[in-house]
Amino acid sequence: MKPHFLNLINSLVLIILGGWAYLEKDAPTALIPIFVGAILWIQTPKMRDGNKNAGHIAAALTLLIVIGLFMPLRRELQLHDTMGIIRSIVMLGSSVFALSSFVKSFIDARRAV
Q1: So what's the pLDDT on residue 110?
Q2: Is residue 66 a part of any domain in this protein?
Q3: Other C-beta atoms within 10 Å of 103: how many?
């Protein structure tokens, strides 16, 4: 799959599941995935047009959200909140999958030079 398409899917997952978490928990930190997802969504058309800077911004934000999602996952595991665990794992999985696509595209671009 193309990195820009996976970026779009990841941004939608972060926005939707982050919004669900915010509505359920009413915790302001649940807004972080929503904001990151919105920024990733904005980067998608730029990535589709071949803008390398947009790809690097998306990869950096995705890496930060992957790192940042471990704390909520740990908290949900301690609270035994099944839906919270599922939300965190889905957001984490989507972000890791998108990040691996970015890395693969960066490697392929480097080899083409």
Answers
A1: 87
A2: yes
A3: 13
